């Protein structure tokens, strides 16, 4: 389904921010007035435009800290008054949204566990009718781009044009280097479909560990994300939620200092070199497609043979041979097993589809 979003550019949002990245930082959870204000005082000196703090926390298990609730909204007002930063919190239902709006929270975000639920998102969108503040939508916990887009559309249809997306990674079962797998191709596709949409990366929830923050943030910047949401706490180890991934303001300043913001434009010299290399890539892409065409023709001939001899389409031995040989050969060419296996699985599936059509063709 083709959709468009009606979006206002970031420089018309009424938020002070340096060119790039837009920084949204603060503790995972608001814990006390002192903790919130102490963090905010440190962050206001670091070019942070939006101070974040969770007030209602969607925790996986009961009997854990589930947020301080509405009381924390007053602490956010104090942050705004004292530091001039915009303040933001997460809303998961209509009640949270009413409460946050009543306390003039400047920016709201919808969490990953809420984006998965169209009823909850619609309920929030209904409360936002006629409201003109920035809203960010985190990706759903499952890797479903359409569901993410659907939530953005619901909020946009309520009249919100200061709209952004936050990439916080996707859940999976079992051990992984990340708390939530980044699946970078999903936000990249979101950006391709909606080039004007502001996209912020949340390395804290992707990595789940402080030592991954710089690498993930750098990657996001190199992929042209507009901003970063990073959890900062005055004493991360004693945080009431997400302790392992939070950093203190000094570590945050260090991270920002180490981040390399590369230019989007190229000098003329770079551009001509880049143009030359891109032409080479275009040439090889054409070659690849022509080879695929030739391969697919042969697959079709094999299909005809199987049809005439009444043979089944998939023969496991042959497929194992093809994939094993290709992976081994690819490795001698410096191509990872993962890449070769993905490409060949896709090609194989297309051959199977073609051959199945052929052997089932009804002669008229
Ligand atoms: C958060 O930002 O603290 C949070 C709960 O995030 P997510 O919805 O990405 O889990
Ligand atoms: Mn958190």
Tell me about this structure.
The model has no long low-confidence stretch (mean pLDDT 95). The chain has an eight-stranded parallel β-barrel with strand order 1-2-3-4-5-6-7-8, surrounded by five helices. Strand 5, helix 6 (145-157) and strand 6 form a beta-alpha-beta unit. The protein is 48% helix and 10% strand. The protein starts with 21 loop residues before the first strand and ends in a 5-residue tail after the last helix. It is an alpha/beta fold and 364 residues long. Phosphoenolpyruvate is lined by residues 28, 54, 58, 90, 111-113, 138, 168, 205.
What's the structural blueprint in terms of helices and strands?
Blueprint (H helix, E strand, L loop, with lengths): L21 E5 L6 H11 L6 E3 L18 H13 L2 E6 L2 H9 L4 E4 L1 H4 L2 H11 L6 E4 L6 H13 L5 E5 L17 H9 L4 E4 L1 H5 L5 H10 L4 E5 L17 H10 L9 H41 L7 H17 L4 H23 L5
Parallel strand pairs: 1-2, 1-8, 2-3, 3-4, 4-5, 5-6, 6-7, 7-8
The structure holds phosphoenolpyruvate and manganese (II) ion.
